[in-house]
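Session log. Operator J.P. requested a structure for one protein chain; no other inputs attached. Running the standard single-chain path with token output.
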Amino acid sequence: MLDHRPECELLKSGLREYQYALLALVQGQYRQAFMALRLFLELTLGAVFFSSNELQLRVWLRGRRDVYWTPLISDEDGVLSKFFVDAFFDGLGDEVATYRAIAKQLYRECSEYVHGNVNTQQSLPENLQYMEPIFSDWHSKAKSARLVTTFALTARYLRDLQLDDRNKMEPIIIDELGHLPIIRSIF
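Structure written below.
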């Protein structure tokens, strides 16, 4: 559906990170699972950001720019701002504050694993082993990541999809965002 778009490579990279996160999770490599989940969130929102800014995308594609979290999450013009969302999906911007708050919290919590904060040092096992509380925590965070990225991708692309492609995406979008009246009205 988006294969023709230049930011698609970044989306694919984000999805690979989600797969790496799942692999690390089932292997008991919990720190790496949280780190990859954070990168999934960052790359996916980065793709949405670059989709609206071709200059920045081209600079990134040439390796001259990084994906920075702060502009992605900016209240004024980030991908989870009313300004940005309403530009692509008029009326959905009224819902954005909730998803921005979830994204900020999720990023902060996953960053604790990236930076090796003391609470992560104490909670992680010394060996590769299954630990139900950490396993469940990862799944809770992954659910939040899927919710936020589904919202951002829906806000950016849904109005531009052909009817057949929109119908293919309906089950995923309804599952995550079906509680929003404006989303239900489309389907």
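Operator note: The mean pLDDT is 92.
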